[in-house]
Description:
Layout: H1 8-18, H2 38-59, H3 65-73, H4 78-116, H5 123-129, H6 131-152, H7 156-174, H8 178-181, H9 186-197, H10 201-216, H11 222-241, H12 243-246, H13 252-272, H14 287-299
Helix pairs in contact: 1-13, 2-4, 2-6, 3-4, 4-6, 4-7, 4-10, 5-11, 6-10, 6-13, 7-9, 10-13, 11-13, 13-14
Amino acid sequence: xxxxxxxxxxxxxxxxxxxxxxxxxxxxxxxxxxxxxxxxxxxxxxxxxxxxxxxxxxxxxxxxxxxxxxxxxxxxxxxxxxxxxxxxxxxxxxxxxxxxxxxxxxxxxxxxxxxxxxxxxxxxxxxxxxxxxxxxxxxxxxxxxxxxxxxxxxxxxxxxxxxxxxxxxxxxxxxxxxxxxxxxxxxxxxxxxxxxxxxxxxxxxxxxxxxxxxxxxxxxxxxxxxxxxxxxxxxxxxxxxxxxxxxxxxxxxxxxxxxxxxxxxxxxxxxxxxxxxxxxxxxxxxxxxxxxxxxxxxxx
Length: 300
């Protein structure tokens, strides 16, 4: 069974943060949930494992570009139309799976926030005491930004899905039987279209989820949520700007993991804090994350 917390690079990341004398709250690789946390931890663990499969599939994404091109160039040749349709249907089925997975990720974020932000204890203390859940929060952010990176660099996704939508719309107009028998009908395709139209669909999902969490829980002080996010950003900041800790990373992938988590929590913070993350009074010092991201991009 795949356990995303046992990745070599991520284990190294968790170890160094845990051994930092200034930050002893980020999840360690072998952090185990308490009996009270286990139900949430188990649910999130299953979703994280599925997320790894999603990333592996997306990395190997092969579009139906050639089949679609031939079908468009010769619209009267039925054989080419059928060939393009046969190529694109299983692809859209996969895209449907990813869309449904985003909804699972939405739920997981809320599960974790209920544990990390809804207590009377300060968020820093919550992160220290519930390291297994905080670790899962970091892995969700890592998955989210990695998925969106792959989506942005795979234009075939939009092209394939656009062709599919045009085709089922034509089927509906012509009252052909194919439209109603498809797994992704016209109504569902419209919802998926809104998801994939975003440059960063998974991050938008989490941003919407945390905004809804705050609005649905007016009894939970907003500071609980924002302090949880800013603390995690500070952990990553220490790891990236302190040579003593960064020099221990044996792989650039470990640095990328840290960057993704940091960028993710900053964006979520910016969505829920009334003044955002980019003001002088913010608990997050944005200059370091921006500089670290630019430096990493130049070195990659």
